[in-house]
Design goal:
Blueprint (H helix, E strand, L loop, with lengths): L40 H15 L3 H16 L25 H14 L10 H10 L8 H23 L5 E9 L6 E10 L5 E10 L6 H15 L5 E6 L3 H15 L12 E3 L2
Parallel strand pairs: 1-4, 4-5
Antiparallel strand pairs: 1-2, 2-3
């Protein structure tokens, strides 16, 4: 790459990139206007020496370039991460009538978003705070808030199943791990798809216990039941799993199930995606 010294107004031949497969630099043929085949070889060698000399920047030039780059890096703006989707200004203003049922729904969302224990609503000082905020507050038991969370889940699941009706292709990823005491083994299944607005979406479709021995056929059965439950068993194109031997067996069994509903993409050669 040619680095011009300050005040150098000479023009240089700049290679143009035609497509992604084009080389970065021009070939010898592209510089034929500078060196012709019928010109004496000594002239060509002299041209080579001039180009090589011109392409090497002096130490001062390099230091100036580094200084400019360092200056740019110091003034680079910070990366702005997306803020929370909850806008406090969008919360409906208090209308003068306290609705305990609506408050219970928001408390259930608070529990699920932060993954708190259901017993959090039975905390003494939590109820003192809520009672102070509104004298009409009624204590909620862990059983009541659990049932409310289940209702919200069923409502969201129904909405998501309706959205899946308009999804033609979907990929899933799975992961398995054990609890801290290594007595309970879990499997999580996540769906990935492009929505109608061409935005990438992903949702956890199932989180289920898979007791040992965790055989491939057991994993395949769990995944297949999940796909049937969501009504997407005929829309799966790829499955990403880690390199455990049980997963190899699970994928082969799952291929049999999927082929009963649809023809696999590229006859299944792209179905199994290994996750390192």
């Amino acid at each position: 790459m040619n680095i011009e010294t300050p005040g150098d107004t000479s023009s240089h031949h700049t290679p143009s990139v035609v497509d992604s497969t084009s080389p970065i630099f021009c070939s010898r043929e592209d510089t034929s206007e500078c060196k012709m085949d019928y010109v004496d070889s000594s002239i060509n060698e002299e041209v080579d020496n001039i180009e090589n000399t011109d392409a090497i920047a002096t130490n001062d030039d390099v230091q100036k370039t580094d200084a400019l780059e360092n200056k740019d890096s110091l003034t680079q703006s910070h990366i702005s991460f997306p803020t929370s989707s909850v806008d406090s200004l969008s919360v409906p203003a208090f209308s003068g009538k306290f609705d305990m049922e609506k408050v219970k729904i928001e408390v259930a969302k608070w529990i699920m978003i932060h993954e708190y224990a259901f017993s959090a609503v039975e905390d003494e000082w939590y109820n003192v705070m809520m009672k102070m905020a509104n004298p009409e507050w009624m204590p909620i038991s862990r059983a009541m808030i659990r049932n409310q969370c289940v209702k919200i889940y069923e409502s969201e699941k129904k909405n998501l199943k309706n959205e899946f009706k308009y999804v033609n292709k979907m990929s899933i990823t799975t992961d398995c791990w054990k609890s801290k005491n290594k007595k309970i083994e879990y499997l999580v299944i996540t769906g990935h798809w492009i929505d109608q607005n061409w935005r990438l979406q992903k949702r956890v479709l199932n989180f289920v216990e898979v007791p040992p021995p965790r055989r491939g056929v057991d994993i395949a059965n769990v995944i297949w039941r999940c796909l049937e439950d969501w009504g997407i068993e005929g829309k799966i194109h790829t499955v990403s799993v880690d390199n455990a031997s049980a997963n190899d067996s699970a994928i082969e069994n799952l291929k049999v199930f999927i082929r009963s509903k649809k023809k696999l993409l590229c006859d299944g050669s792209l179905f199994h995606v290994r996750c390192k």
